[in-house]
Design brief:
By secondary structure, the protein is α/β, with parallel strands linked by helices. It has helices at about 5-15, 20-25, 30, 60-65, 110-125, 160-165, 180-190, and strands at about 45-50, 50-60, 70-75, 80-90, 95-105, 125-130, 145-155, 170-175. It has a single domain (about 5-50, about 80-190), classed as Dna-directed Rna Polymerases I, Ii, And Iii 27 Kd Polypeptide, Chain: A, domain 1, CATH 3.40.1340. It contains 7 helices and 8 strands; from the N terminus they run H-H-H-E-E-H-E-E-E-H-E-E-H-E-H. It has a 5-stranded mixed sheet, sandwiched between helices. The protein has a 3-stranded antiparallel sheet with strand order 3-2-6, with no helix packed on it. It is globular.
């Protein structure tokens, strides 16, 4: 059975909510430990579905002609499905840790999934600034020091993809279409305390 578009859309919508993103990170413990405050996890991260970044590159033409360098800004949609940005819940500032989530898309094979991560790495290997959600637009949102990938696959995802992710030493979790209701409730309760 193949992955359906509706499965992909459901997970993208689900993980766009902070409580579901926290539940996702719980499935990969090393990333769970990156959340700055487990007492206030929902105040400790920002989720950006289908993220857009302003990439800043050197204008080589101005460098060779005038011996001075100018920055060229280009706004681009990144090929990841979700950006999870860590932030300090007390000071409401973005920290230097970001997790890029890649959900296996219908008809996508291993090389295409891996290529989306590689393109994201290339884009974020320069100065950049996130276009933040309205409620978080006050945050300084520039370049991070640590960028981590997290792949989400389905039980229907071909086995060669999970084997390829293991071989490439890339972290992934298997999603069973929707997180159990208990995990979402637990994530919501822990954010309130």
């Amino acid at each position: 059975m193949a992955v359906k578009q509706s499965q992909y859309e459901a997970l993208l919508a689900q993980y766009s909510e902070r409580s579901a993103a926290i539940a996702l990170l719980k499935q990969h413990r090393p990333y769970m430990s990156l959340i700055p405050s487990m007492r206030r996890p929902e105040s400790s991260l920002v989720t950006i579905p289908l993220p857009v970044a302003r990439l800043k590159t050197e204008d080589l033409q101005s460098l060779t002609q005038a011996h001075t360098s100018k920055k060229i800004t280009k706004t681009q949609i990144l090929p990841c499905d979700l950006a999870i940005l860590m932030c300090d819940p007390e000071w409401k500032i973005k920290l230097d840790v970001e997790i890029m989530v890649f959900i296996h898309r219908p008809e996508e094979d291993f090389s295409e999934l891996l290529l989306r991560w590689r393109h994201t790495q290339v884009c974020l290997d320069q100065d950049y600034q996130w276009l933040m959600p309205e409620e978080d637009s006050h945050m300084f949102s520039e370049t991070a020091e640590q960028i981590h990938p997290l792949f989400v696959i389905f039980p229907e995802t071909p086995e060669r993809i999970s084997r390829g992710l293991q071989g490439a030493n890339l972290p992934f979790v298997v999603s069973y279409h929707a997180l159990p209701e208990s995990d979402l409730c637990e994530a919501a309760l822990s954010s309130e305390s």
